[in-house]
Amino acid sequence: MAGEVSTGVTIDSRPTVFGDRMIITGTYDAGDNYIDLSSFLSEIDFAGVNASGALAAEVITDTGATPPTQEVMVNPQVRIDGTALRIAGGLANATLADSAVTQAGTFIAIGRRA
Questions:
Q1: Where are the domains of the chain?
Q2: In this predicted structure, what is the pLDDT of residue 3?
Q3: How many CB atoms sit inside 10 A of residue 1's CB?
Q4: Which residue among 11, 17, 32, 86 has its CA within the 20 to 30 Å range from the CA of 42?
């Protein structure tokens, strides 16, 4: 997806390979919300992200609830989008938003090798 590739993403130079699977790890900068792994993986089975340093809490209103409720999200969330990861800072209307995270962090993805 042109124009969406985050420039602050660093992929570790030695991925782990076992059979037809690969583990990719790396880091992302604050403000990144898209990590393209298509040059490594043909599909992603699992992904996770962790914020580095102290976690920043966000208060987000869930307008889909009756009555609207507020939740405090402290960890970034990740969604698998084909062969890419989308990282978001929180939830909006009980769905994962594509809002940029405010803290840098690390990521891991496990999937089928490309």
A1: 10-54+77-87+95-113
A2: 37
A3: 10
A4: 32
Residue in 103, 104, 52, 98 with CA at minimum distance from that of residue 78:
98
pLDDT score, position 109: 97
72, 21 in Cβ contact below 8 A? Answer: no
Which of 87, 24, 94 minimizes the C-alpha distance to 52?
Answer: 87
Identify which of 114, 110, 102 has the alpha carbon closest to the alpha carbon of residue 28: 102
Contact call for residues 105 and 49 (beta carbons, < 8 A): yes
User: What gap in Å lies between CA 56 and CA 42, rounded to an integer?
Assistant: 33
pLDDT of residue 94: 46
**Cβ neighbours of 109 (radius 10 Å):** 26
pLDDT at 60: 64
Residues of the chain with pLDDT under 50: 1-4, 92-94
